[in-house]
Amino acid sequence: MDTLDARNVERALNAAANQMLAVVAPATSRLVQAAVTVAEADTASTDGVHIWLPPAFEGVDVTQDAPVAIGLLAHELGHFLQPLQEVQQAERETGAPHWLANILLDIQGEAQTACLFPPLSVPLTAVRAAVGRNRMGEYVRELVVPGVEFAQAACALALAGRFAQPGAPFAERWYREAAYADVRGVLEAADWAGKADELLNWLGTAHWTAAKDLPGLLRQIMAQFPELQAAPALTMPLGDPKIAARGIGQAAQVEAQANTREREPMDSQELKELPVQPGLPEPDAVTIARAIRLRFAVPKGGVEVVAPGRLDRREAARGDGIPFRLDLPGRSAPRPQVVICLDVSESMWYSKGKIWAARVAAQAIALAVRDAGGDVVGVLFDDTWLIGAGWGDALLFAPAAWPTEGGTYFAFLADLWRRYPSHWVVLVTDGDGYVPYAAAPDRARTGAVVIPDGKPEKMAEICNSVIVLKDPRDLPWAMALLIPRAIVA
Q1: Smallest Cα–Cα separation from 97: which of 210, 185, 203?
Q2: Are 281 and 363 in contact (CB under 8 A)?
Q3: Contact (Cβ atoms closer than 8 angstroms) between residue 253 and residue 245
Q4: pLDDT tens for residues 179-194?
C-alpha cells in the first residue's frame, strides 16, 4: 500500500475516535476534537483526547491495516472507561499478579467497547486474530510442559482464552477445539483440571461485569486462588493500559466514566433480514394516521441574505452599514426521518389486545411519516432484531406470523443508533427488558410508546419522551408528547 492508503487509515482513525468521544462524552466532545497519531512506542497510550498508536503490532504495519489500527484504538477506549487506579489498588492489596489484572481489564474493556459500538467488534476481532497467529504456539508450549503445575500454567491458560477464538474477548473452553487436543489431554489428566476450568469461568465473568465492579472481581478471584500470587507472567501482547488524562482530556474521562461505569456489557443481538410481502394496514391505523399526519409536516427551508428587502432593526441599532435582509425560500422541505421498532417478544402476546394496540400504533406512525414524504424504517425485535429487505417499513405491515420465542432485549439499539445517526427512533413496546447505555444525543432522539402492562420507567432511562398508550386511538393527542415537531426532520 502507498502513502494515500496510510492517509486513508489516519482519516478513518480520527473519524472513529471522534465518533467514540461523542457517544461516551457528548458534552466534552463539543469542546474538543480527538486526534490519533502513529508514534514510536510499544503500546497505545492517550491523554484523553490525543491517542498515540504504535507503528507496528504483532508484525502488522498499523499505518497500512485499517482493521487492526481501529481495533487498537477501540481497545484503548475500553481502558479509558475503566477505574484503573482502583484496580491497581486491589492488585496491591491482594498480591494479585499484574498479568491477571491486565487480562481482566482487557476482557471487560473490549466487551464494553463492542457493546457501545457494535461495528467495532470486527476490528477488535482483527487485533485478537493477529495476536493469536503469533502467540498461540507459545501458550500451547507452556501448557504441555511435563509436570506443569496450576500456578505455572495459569497465565498461559488465561492468555490462550483471550486469543484462541478471536471472535470474542474471551473463551472459557478454548482447549476443546480439535487444534488443541494436546492441551486438552494434559489438562484433563492434571490433578488441577477442575481448578483450571474454575479460573477460566471466573475470567469469563469479566465479559459481563460493569467497570465499577472490576476491583471487586479481582478481589474475588484472588480469594478463590491465593496461589496465583506466585504465578509467573508471560509477555502481555497488548501491554499495560497507558491512560494519563489531563486538562480537557481528564474532563472527557470523568464524563465518559460517569456515563458508562454502572452498565454491564451486553452481547449484541443477531440481525436477520427477512424477505417480506407487506399486507394491508389495520383500518384503525389508517384513520389514526390521517389525524397525526400534520405532526410530521415540515415547512420548506430557506436562507437569509444581506440584500435589499426588509429592514432589520436590530442590525440597524448595532450600526450595521447595510441593515437589510432578504429571505430566500427553499425549493424543497426536509424529509422527516423515523425508525419504528415494534416489540414482538413473548410478553407482547400475553393478551391479543396488547400486540394489536402496538401494531396499530406502529403502522399509524409509519403511514403518517410516509404520507408526509418522509423516510420510514421498520424493525421488529425480541431477542433478535428483524428488518425487511431494503430496510423499508414493509415488516410493520406483514401478516402477524413472527417468531416470538424470545424475551425483550434492547441491545440492538446501540447498533441502530450508529446506523441511523439522524433518525428519530420510536420504540413500541411494553418496556420489559434490560436496556443499554444511551448517550445524551441518542436519548434525545428516542421516544417510546409503552403498551400496558409495561415499564415506562425502564424506557425513561434511554428515551427522551415516553407515553403510555392503552388504546391506539388516543395516539393523536399523545403525539405532541412523543415527537416534538421541531425535531422530526
Answers
A1: 203
A2: yes
A3: yes
A4: 999 999 999 999 999 9
pTM: 0.83
Helix (H) or strand (E) holding 306: strand 302-311
Quote the CA–CA distance of 306 and 308 in Å, as a whole number. 7
How far apart are the C-alpha atoms of 46 and 79, rounded to whole Å? Answer: 10
For residues 303 and 301, give the distance between their C-alpha atoms in angstroms, rounded to a whole number.
7
Mind listing the pLDDT tens digit for each residue in 351-392? Answer: 778 999 999 999 999 999 999 888 999 999 998 898 888 888
Residue closest to 354 by CA, chosen among 419, 451, 285, 269: 451
Domains along the sequence of the chain with CATH: 3-260 (no CATH), 272-292+334-487 (3.40.50.410), 301-329 (no CATH)
pLDDT in the model for residue 1: 42
C-alpha cell at 343: 416489540
Three cell numbers written together for 259: 456515563
Q: 83-89: which pairs have CB atoms within 8 A and are 24 or more residues apart?
A: 83/211, 83/212, 83/214, 83/215, 83/257, 83/261, 84/241, 84/243, 86/214, 86/215, 87/214, 87/215, 87/218, 89/215
Grid coordinates representing 132 are 493469536
Alpha helical stretches, state H, 95-231: 98-116, 121-143, 150-163, 181-189, 193-204, 214-224
Please identify which residue in the block is written with the cell numbers 430566500.
328
Name every residue whose Cβ is closer than 8 Å to that of residue 115 and which is 6 or more positions away in sequence.
263, 265, 266, 267, 268, 411, 414, 436, 437
**Residues linked to residue 380 through DSSP beta bridges, in sequence order:** 342, 386
Mean pLDDT score of the chain, rounded to an integer? 88
pLDDT tier at 489 (50, 70, 90 boundaries)?
A: very low
The packing angle between helices 214-224 and 193-204, to 10°, is 170
Give the CA angle between residues 179, 114, 67 to the nearest 5°. 70
Distance of alpha carbon 100 from its chain centroid, rounded?
Answer: 26
Q: For the purposes of burial, counting CB atoms within 10 Å of the CB of 180, is it exposed (0-12), middle (13-18) or buried (19 or more)?
A: buried
Q: Which residues pair with 388 in a beta bridge?
A: 274
Query: Is it the case that residue 318 has pLDDT exceeding 80?
Result: no
**In terms of Cα–Cα distance, which of 338, 343, 354, 356 is closest to 292?**
338
What burial class does residue 7 get, using C-beta atoms within 10 Å of its C-beta: 0-12 exposed, 13-18 middle, 19+ buried?
exposed
